[in-house]
Amino acid sequence: MPRTRLTTPLVRKDGELVEATWDEALERVAEGFGAARPNGETAFGMFSCSKSTNEMNYAAQRFARKVMGSNNIDSCNRT
Questions:
Q1: For residue range 32-59, what is the model confidence (pLDDT) as tens digits?
Q2: Long-range contacts: 75-78, Cβ < 8 Å, 24+?
Q3: Which residues have a Cβ under 8 Å from the Cβ of 34 and sit 6 or more positions away?
């Protein structure tokens, strides 16, 4: 059976994607978000989907505002 989806996270090492543990992948994500945060409120933005539930969109905007310190969040709900 052909592999149709990822079952382990991939991280870039020396320009190539290699398999990693979930702990290593999540640490990389946290480092990336942490690096973007101190650069001001324009360093981070988030798009949210109108097909998501209201609860998911609310969680996304809370993350952007409270965790990342940015009001740059948009969704196509307004159209």
A1: 888 877 777 677 888 888 788 889 989 9
A2: 75/47, 75/48, 75/49, 75/50, 76/49, 76/50, 77/48, 77/50
A3: none
Mean pLDDT of the chain: 85
DSSP 79: -
What is the model's pTM?
Answer: 0.64
Domain ranges of the chain: 10-39, 42-79
Q: How far is CA 3 from CA 8, 9, 19, 20, 45, in A?
A: 12, 14, 15, 17, 33
